[in-house]
Design a protein that fits this description.
The chain contains three helices and no strands. The chain is mostly helical. α2 packs antiparallel against α3. The longest helix has 17 residues. The protein binds heme C (HEC). The site of heme C (HEC) has 16 residues, from α1 and α2.
Amino acid sequence: MAACRRGLPDAQSYGARLYAARCGQCHSAYDPASLTAPMWQVQVEAMEARMRQARLPELTDAERQAILDYLEQHAQR
Ligand code: HEC
């Protein structure tokens, strides 16, 4: 699964920027179209555990929701 080299969809939106900032720290931010919405739900939960292990600041509920909204909007259908 490669990161999207053409850049993220809707790149200037709040959701895209938050996603790139919070989910692009350890690997580059994956293309939202690489997973379906239910897969993103699972993946974001798994990555929150990685963030805790790495002692990165946790996502707030609002941040998690904004990231999931963004990913689901552009997810694989
Ligand atoms: C603390 C570092 C770190 C952060 C921050 C992080 N990830 Fe990851 N990510 C990893 C590691 C390490 C892997 C390799 C697979 C694994 O060990 O879980 C990975 C793998 C992935 C994969 C590929 C999984 C697969 O099966 O190939 C996706 C998709 C992903 N991350 C999404 C995210 C999202 C979404 C966020 C933000 C919510 C995020 N990552 C934030 C460390 C991180």
